[in-house]
Amino acid sequence: MKIIDLSYAVTHQMQVFPADPAVGFLRHHDYGNGYFVSQVIMGTHTGTHVDVPVHRIKGGKAVDEVPIDKFAGKAYVMDLTFLKPLEEITAAHLDGHLQKIKGVRAVILKTNWGEHFGREDFFTDFPGIGEEAAPWFLEHGISLIGLESPSVNALKHAEIHECLLGKEIGIVESLANVKELKSEYVEFFAVPLKLKGLDGSPVRAFAIEYE
What does R_g of the chain's alpha carbons equal in angstroms? Predict the structure, then answer.
């Protein structure tokens, strides 16, 4: 059994999606009372994180209302590493994987975009899910999508979020180390904090491969 960490470290003043809240670490106690205690200030979509319906759908389920089993289970690692910057995933791209997704409800879209993490283009030029591809996942029983990119589409993020989250398909964004996954199928975990009423949560995502 091999465990692959799929999460980026959250760091003080790290780069975040444009217009998202800044990240700050504050030292609350520095052993003055015998303990080291910190305060963390950050947005719900910092680093590796999940999006849940209320993020885009008013009245949709909040992160504490989505069953925990949504965020854990067998996933198919879909190789889309041929995609170029800003290229959209089409239904035709996905149809070639149709037989592979039978029996799974989660997919990890492997694009190698994680290699751009820390670069200026990470948040702007990533390949994304196209409008004809978004309904494909619902049609074929997928309820959780993992992405190396920081959003679902660089130019049509509102439309694609609405399509997926409106059908209660969970989204895990900014997965790290996906290129290290060698198996077609992994056990995938991206469990959020139980933040009552909120729209998403940072996660410590990881995958388990069996040799």
Answer: 17
Global pTM reads 0.96
What distances in angstroms separate CA 142 from CA 3, 76, 80, 168, 170, one per listed residue?
23, 10, 17, 10, 9
Q: What is the spatial distance between Cα 149 and Cα 1, in angstroms, rounded to a whole number? A: 27
Q: Which of 63, 97, 58, 21 is nearest to 170 (CA)?
A: 63
Q: Closest Cα partner for 205 from 193, 189, 184, 194? A: 189
Question: Residue 106 phi/psi, 5° resolution?
Answer: -130, 145
> Alpha-carbon distance 152 to 17, whole Å?
12
pLDDT band at 211 (very low <50, low <70, confident <90, very high): confident
Token duo for residue 40: 């963390």
Whole-angstrom distance, CA of residue 22 vs CA of residue 29: 22
Residue labelled with tokens 């289970």: 73
d(CA 159, CA 176): 25
Burial call 172-182: b when 16+ CB within 10 Å, e when fewer: bbbbbbbeebe
Cβ-count burial 126-139 (b if 16+ within 10 Å, e if not): bbbbbeebbebbee
In angstroms, the CA 23 to CA 12 distance is 6
Average pLDDT over residues 34-62: 97
